[in-house]
Amino acid sequence: MKITNIAEEINLNQIMDISVDVHKDTLNFFFVTGGKEFTDECRNRTDVIERRIKKYIKIAKDNEMNNLRIICEPTGQYQNSLLRTARRHGCLTCYVNAESVKKFRVVETNDTGKTDTKDPRVISTLARLNKVIKHRMLGEDYLMLRKLGKIYDETDVEIVRLKGRLNKLMVELFCDYSFKKDFLYSNSGFALVEKYGCNPYRIIKSGFNRFCRTMKKAAPRIHEKTLKRLFEDAQSSVLNELPPGYIEVLQQRFYQLFQDYLKQDKRKEEIVEKMIEILNRLREKDPNIPPPTVGVISAKNLARLLGETGPLDDFSNWRKLMRYFGLNIRMRQSGQYQGQNKITKKGRPLGRKVLDNIVLPLVKQGCLYGDYYHVKKDKEKRPGNKAMTIIMRNFLKKFYGWYQSGKAFDQKRFFNSESRYSKAA
Q1: What contacts 268, CB < 8 A, 6 or more positions away?
Q2: What's the whole-number mean pLDDT along residues 165-186?
């Protein structure tokens, strides 16, 4: 027996819609009630908004309306004060799609112009047609998880940028350095930075024997051939004979960038610890949240994914979750014309990035999606990015089903429908 939750319908006949065009500094209001149109403008400031909301609630009651519904476009963070104030006073809140407003403006006004007085009217029309999007108010843990996920991504981007600048600086300071980029961030690389600042002139001045002793003391597991190769690279690099003052400037800048890298790397670890702590709290409250599973999803990635999805029971089916991430399919077909099917990319871009990070190690041969991915890529001749998108969609759908089941991960069930799995069992 299949049981489907039915969304509770709101009687909009007793609700007064307030359409708002949100800007950084101002809010433009429009609503219709009692056979009259009201337009208003105020500062985008919490105390000012609160006075306006109270005033509109009084107007609604005077016209025998039970409540207000505040409708606006998502505009980064500028709508937060408006929506939180409205919720605090018991009002309903929802969004309209910014692209829908842009396109419907032409229908509503019969021209392509844009003004602060036109947009609230367009939003009002979309609301009457019920073309609205649910405004989700996340709980404290999910809100923290989402923000930490954003900070983690920003920190990760900064680390990549710092590594690029360090590698570029190495071309000048240690021009014949022949190791791969990752060597610098290993234990041996840290020892080289700590003891010699990756300065080939200091390495040569120290001499080979002393250089080996110093490095082995700082990194006991470093190989002899690695030390020999580093010294040979240093011998070749010093033939450039850079001016001593210029070498000092390069080395000082290298130290600064490397210290910045270490700070960001430590911050990233602290963020992960905090996210895992919140994940554990959420799993205590909701046992259906899947546990971190080796070969499927790590605790860090699970926390990042839940930060992007929010509470999974907010979604009545997996298609809504797919749409929320912008992974739903946009079709282009008319008569005999058949265009390419593509994902909309309208949802959460960071969510798609997190999904990509999750499935990337899973598509290797012998891993969870190894066979599935290579069938799509090699046999069906799909480009790598499209094959990865298919894997991302498949994983998100299966993750939602995993949550709904509340059961432990079962690889045999993962790639089988319920009927086929039952038959095989």
Answers
A1: 152, 155, 156, 159
A2: 92
Cα torsion at 299, 305, 306, 308 (round to 10°)? 150
What is the 3-class SS of 184-220, one letter each residue? HHCHHHHHHHHHHCCCHHHHHHHCHHHHHHHHHHHCC
Rounded Cα distance, 76 and 195, in Å: 46
Q: Tokens 């079962």 — which residue?
A: 410
Q: Report pTM.
A: 0.87
For residue range 125-175, list pLDDT tens digits in order. 999 988 898 888 889 999 999 999 999 999 999 999 999 999 999 999 999
Q: Kindly report the backbone phi and psi dihedral angles of residue 42, in degrees, each rounded to the nearest multiple of 5, phi listed first.
A: -150, 170
Query: Could you tell me which residues come within 8 angstroms of residue 28 by beta carbon, excluding any fewer than 6 positions away?
Result: 20, 21, 39, 40, 41, 116, 117, 119, 120
Q: Report how far apart, in Å, the C-alpha atoms of 42 and of each of 8, 25, 30, 419 are.
A: 33, 9, 12, 59
| Inter-residue contact 315 to 289 (CB < 8 Å) | no
In b/e form, how buried is each residue of 305-341, taking b as 16+ CB within 10 angstroms?
A: bbbbbbbbeebeebeebbebbbbbeeeeeeeeeeeee
Decide: 276 and 303 in contact? Cβ < 8 Å: yes
Q: d(Cα 293, Cα 96) in Å, to the nearest integer?
A: 38
CA 169, CA 152: separation in Å to the nearest integer?
26
Answer for the pair 120, 23: CB distance below 8 angstroms, yes or no.
no
- CA 415 to CA 399: how far, in whole Å? 12
Q: Is the pLDDT of residue 3 over 80?
A: no
3-class state of residue 15 by DSSP:
strand
- Comparing 384 with 6, the larger pLDDT belongs to 384
Exposed/middle/buried for residue 204 (C-beta within 10 Å: 0-12, 13-18, 19+): middle
Tokens matching residue 388: 């990865």
Q: Which of 364, 371, 147 is nearest to 271 (CA)?
A: 147
Helix (H, G, I), strand (E, B) or coil at 31: strand
Q: Identify the burial level of 138 via C-beta atoms within 10 angstroms of its C-beta, where 0-12 means exposed, 13-18 middle and 19 or more buried.
A: middle
